[in-house]
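Contributing new records

If you add data, match the layout below exactly. Sequence lines come first and carry their own label; structure lines follow with theirs. Keep one chain per record. Anything else will be rejected by the validation script.
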Amino acid sequence: MRIAFVFPGQGSQSVGMLGGFADNETVRGALARADEALGFSIERLIAEGPAEELNLTVNTQPAVLASSVAFYEAWLAAGGQKPELLAGHSLGEYSALCAAGVFPLEEAVKLVRFRAEAMQSAVPVGVGGMAAIIGLSDEEVEGACVAGRAAGTVEAVNFNSPGQVVIAGHIEAVRAAVEDAKARGARRAIELPVSAPFHSSLLEPAAKRLAERLEGVAMAEPSIPVIANVDVTVHKAPEEIRAALARQACSAVQWVKTIEAMKEAGITDIVECGPGRVLVGLIRRIAPEIKTHNIYDQATLEKTLAALSN
């Protein structure tokens, strides 16, 4: 048995997502540290909402990261073994790096709140957009993007699983690409309710701001290898990690290749650690031979602990 952990990104949040760990002291302790670092109670916002406030990018990113890292700390406190590999989807890469000891939770929550603000402010609301394309090959999606570029910038930005690709860019170009994808036979091609064209080249201003902010963040070499979203590479040197994180803001998330790299490394079991269950579904479509597990409340932690105990 060879184990990897993966951490979810923005979109997995929900009001009450800590409820299943209400009696877990490790989780409560981690959230208290996040609250102190942020200067306000992200734990209360998660518990009580309102959802509209939790779903604001500047709140969502620290909320998902703090929860994911808290669940990982609860896993270790319960006697769970450390994984051999780590990765995270978009924002989740910061959770993975935190789990690997690159930076502490207190630094990570402040960093991703800055990241969220930089990404949100890079493109005025209403100028950019995103869409999910279901049922086409990567090459067909790229063809739809080429067609859409007559109206502006549009690119494939999330390679989530075979036949599921997210595109982003100028809203008019995204809509043109969606229509072209439908003409190519896409099962679904729908705009997503997001406030910015995340991971597209339109976010280069955010990447530059993030690079400057990352220069001031002390980092250690990871104690567990972390596969980076942008190049599916394990970076050890802090300067390489900083560069990969900055690039990630305006580059595609290579999730299919990330899971394929885990399979090639001999990983037999992958645990999705954090709110929601999106990544397990993607993993099953990418590499169905890999066993998948979740940690999102006390019951799933105990179930995963039993399944992976030697």
